[in-house]
Design goal:
Length: 611
C-alpha cells in the first residue's frame, strides 16, 4: 500500500533553526500524526539543504571546512526538531550518498530527454536566496524576496528547457484545482504563467561545493535543482518499489518558494516522465514587527528559548503557532499574545478541565472511573465536533480544527459548571455524581485524541493520568469503569508576567573598569535538586554557600554536577525564581543548542577570583 507522503522544504544550513523554519516542520508533523493516528501508513520527510554558494561562503567566513560546517549545522536542526517532538521518518541531507546518486541519475535522465543545453548565463543573482532574477523583478536594485544586494553573474551554464513544458503545466494546473493551495498561491502561479517562461540555469561554474554534473567537469548542479530532487531520493527512486511512497500527497513550504515548487519542480518531473505531487501548500510568513522573521535579517525567535523563558512545555509553541492566525496567512509574532493564549486557552480552558476532573475522581471515587449514564447533550456535542474536526484536518485548516477541539473542551467545562458535582453529596444523588465522573473521563479521553496531532506531549500526559490509550472513535465507551486515574501536576502553569529581557550590552565598548565590576569566583557544586522540568536548584560553595537556580537541567545529570568545579558570578542582584532566591549565576557557554559549563582547567581553591 502506498504511504501518505508528506514533505517540508529542506532547510539551508547557514543559520540556526527558528520559529519560521520550525513552523513548516510542525505543520507537516501535525498532518503526519493525524494520519498515523487514523491508521494510515505515513512517510514524513524533512531535512537540510547543504550545497551551494551561500553555504560555501558561510563556512569560509567561519574559517572551517564546508563539510564540518554542514555536519554541525545539520545536527542543530535535528536537535531542534527533536525538542519540538517532530516525528519525521527520514531526515535527508543533500550530502547523503543516496541523494547524490539520485540527483546524478535524474540529471542524466533529463539530459537524455534532450531538455538540457549549454549556454551562458548573464544576469542578476541573489546568493542569500540562491535565486536568479531579471532586471525587472528587482526591487530598488535588491532581491525582491529578502531585500539583500544582488550581484551580476556571467558564467558558462547548462540550461533546462522549462519553456518547453509551460503549456502542459498550465493545462495540468487547470485540470487539478487542488494541486496548488491555498487559492491565493494558485492565483499567483497562474498569473505568473501568463508570461513566457525562461529556461532555467541549472549549473554553476564559479565555485565547487555541489554535486558534479555528469560529463561536465567544471559544473556543479544548481542548488535548487539538486534540492528539489531530495523528495525523489527519499522515495527510493530510481529503485523499484519507489511508488510505495511516490508521489507526495502534501508538500508544505513558505510562500516565497512556491514558484520553485509549482513551476520548476513539476516541470522537472514532467521532463523525467514522473508523477506530480498531489498537493502543494504555500503557507504565509511569521513576521516580527512586520518584517519576515529570517536568519539573514537576524530578527528570529528560537522556540526553545521562548519555552525556557516562560518555563512552559513545547506544546505551547506548537499550539499558538496554529492558533494565532489561519494556516496560510501571514502573522506578526507577539509574545503577549503567546502568553495570553497559554494562560487563557491552554491554562484556563484545557489545563483547568483536566485538573478539575482528576480532582473530582480523586475526591468522590477514590481516583477510580465509575460506571455511569452517557450524557446525551455532551455526546451530541462530541459527534458534531468530531465531524467538523475531521473535515478541517483534511482541508489543512488547522486553525478551525483546533477551534473544534476546543469547542468540546468548552462543552465539558460547561458540563461541570451546569452539573455542579460538588453539590451532589446526598446519598440519593450518588448515581448522578458517578455519571458526571464517567462522562468527564470519556470527554478527557476524546480531547486527548483531538489535540494529539498538535500537542502530543500534553495528550500523552492526559492518557497517563487516565491510564487509557486515547481514541475518539469509540465515543463514550473507551474509558472502562474501574480504570484507576492518577492526578499529576497541572499541565500549563500560569505565566505570571512578561519578563522583558534587556538588550545585550555592546561588549566592544566595555572597559576594563566595567569588567572589574563583575565579581566572578571559582566554586564547587555541593548539592543539586530538581526545581522544574528545566531548572535545577544548585548549592555552590564559593565565597559562601550560595543557592543558584540554573536552567541546565536538560544538559547535565545531577551526578555530573555534584562536586564539579564551576565559575560563578556572585554579585548579581539576587532574584526569586520559582519561589527560590537565586544568588548568582553559574557561567556556561552556548552555541547551536549546546550548553557546557565553564570550569577551571586545573585544581584551584574555591573562591578564587576570576581575573
Ligand atoms: N533550501 C530552500 C528550500 C529547498 S526545498 C527543495 C529554502 N530554505 S530556507 O531555510 O530558507 O527556508 C525554508 C522554509 O522555511 C521556507 O519555505 C518556509 O517554509 C520556512 N520559513 C523560513 N522563514 C519563515 C518565516 N519567517 N515564516 C514562516 N515560514 C518561514 O528556502
Amino acid at each position: 500500500m502506498k504511504s501518505f507522503f508528506v514533505t517540508t522544504p529542506i532547510y539551508y544550513v547557514n543559520g540556526e533553526p527558528h520559529l519560521g523554519t520550525i513552523y513548516t516542520t510542525i505543520a507537516a508533523d501535525i498532518i503526519a500524526r493525524y494520519k498515523r493516528f487514523n491508521n494510515k501508513k505515513v512517510f514524513f520527510l524533512t531535512g537540510t539543504d547543504e550545497h551551494g554558494e551561500k553555504v560555501e561562503q558561510s563556512a569560509q567566513k567561519k574559517g572551517v571546512s564546508v563539510k564540518k560546517y554542514v555536519d554541525e549545522m545539520s545536527s542543530a536542526f535535528k536537535e531542534a526538531f527533536k525538542k519540538m517532538n517532530i516525528s519525521y521518518d527520514r531526515f535527508i541531507r543533500t550530502t547523503d550518498e543516496d541523494h547524490i546518486k539520485t540527483a546524478t541519475a535524474f540529471y542524466k535522465q533529463v539530459f537524455k530527454k534532450g531538455d538540457i543545453y549549454k549556454g551562458e548565463y548573464e544576469g542578476w543573482y541573489c546568493v542569500s536566496c540562491e535565486t536568479f532574477w531579471t532586471e525587472k523583478e528587482l526591487l530598488n536594485n535588491t532581491c525582491p524576496d529578502c531585500g539583500k544586494k544582488v550581484k551580476i553573474l556571467k558564467e558558462e551554464t547548462l540550461f533546462f528547457k522549462q519553456s518547453k513544458y509551460q503549456k502542459k503545466l498550465i493545462e495540468y494546473i487547470n485540470k487539478h484545482p487542488d494541486f496548488i493551495q491555498p487559492k491565493i498561491r494558485r492565483n499567483e502561479i497562474i498569473s505568473f504563467l501568463k508570461k513566457p517562461l525562461k529556461d532555467l540555469s541549472i549549473s554553476r561554474t564559479s565555485f565547487t561545493w555541489g554535486i558534479p554534473v555528469p560529463g561536465e567537469k567544471k559544473h556543479v548542479i544548481y542548488v535548487w535543482f539538486d534540492a528539489l530532487i531530495n523528495y525523489l531520493t527519499a522515495s527510493g527512486y530510481p529503485k523499484k518499489g519507489y511508488t510505495n511512497i511516490w508521489p507526495p500527497d502534501i508538500q508544505f513550504m513558505g510562500k516565497e518558494i512556491t514558484r520553485f515548487h509549482c513551476i520548476t519542480w513539476p516541470i522537472m518531473l514532467m521532463s523525467a516522465g514522473l508523477e506530480l505531487p498531489r498537493k502543494v501548500f504555500g503557507h504565509g510568513w511569521w513576521t516580527l514587527n512586520a518584517k519576515k522573521m529570517s536568519k539573514s535579517i537576524g530578527n528570529v525567535i528560537c522556540p526553545d528559548k521562548l519555552c525556557d523563558k516562560y518555563n512552559v512545555p513545547v506544546d505551547c509553541v506548537r499550539y499558538v503557532l496554529f492558533k494565532q492566525m489561519p494556516f496560510g496567512s501571514d502573522g506578526d509574532f507577539n509574545e503577549s499574545i503567546f502568553v495570553e493564549k497559554v494562560n487563557n486557552e491552554l491554562g484556563s480552558e484545557l489545563g483547568n478541565l483536566v485538573s478539575r476532573s482528576l480532582a473530582l475522581f480523586q475526591r468522590y471515587n477514590n481516583s477510580v472511573v465509575p460506571k455511569g449514564e452517557v450524557d446525551k447533550k455532551l455526546q451530541e456535542s462530541y459527534k458534531k465536533v468530531l465531524e467538523s474536526y475531521h473535515k478541517f484536518m483534511e482541508d489543512l485548516d488547522y486553525y478551525n480544527a483546533l477551534n473544534s477541539a476546543f469547542d468540546f473542551v468548552r462543552a465539558a467545562n460547561k458540563y461541570i459548571a451546569d452539573e455542579e458535582p460538588w453539590k451532589l453529596t446526598r446519598k440519593e444523588d450518588n448515581d448522578k455524581l458517578m455519571s458526571v465522573l464517567f462522562n468527564l473521563a470519556q470527554s478527557l479521553n476524546i480531547i486527548s485524541a483531538l489535540i494529539y496531532p498538535f500537542m502530543p506531549e500534553t495528550s500523552g500526559k492526559i492518557d497517563e493520568q487516565l491510564s487509557v490509550k486515547k481514541d475518539y472513535n469509540k465515543g463514550f465507551k473507551n474509558v472502562k469503569p474501574g480504570a484507576k486515574t492518577v492526578k499529576r501536576d497541572i499541565l500549563f502553569p500560569k505565566i505570571e508576567k512578561i519578563v522583558e529581557e534587556k538588550p545585550a550590552q555592546e561588549l566592544e565598548h566595555a572597559s576594563f573598569e566595567d569588567f572589574k565590576k563583575l565579581d566572578i569566583r571559582t566554586g564547587t557544586i555541593i548539592e543539586v535538586s530538581e526545581l522544574t522540568d528545566k531548572l535545577y536548584r544548585i548549592k555552590v560553595k564559593a565565597d559562601k554557600e550560595r543557592t543558584v537556580v540554573s536552567g541546565i537541567r536538560k544538559y547535565y545529570s545531577k551526578k555530573e554536577l555534584l562536586n564539579k568545579k564551576v565559575v560563578i558570578l556572585i554579585n548579581l542582584e539576587p532574584k526569586k525564581i520559582m519561589g527560590v532566591l537565586s544568588e548568582g549565576m553559574i557561567l556556561a557557554a552556548e552555541k547551536n543548542n549546546r550548553v557546557v559549563l565553564l570550569s577551571p582547567d586545573k585544581d584551584i581553591y574555591d573562591d578564587a577570583r576570576v581575573l
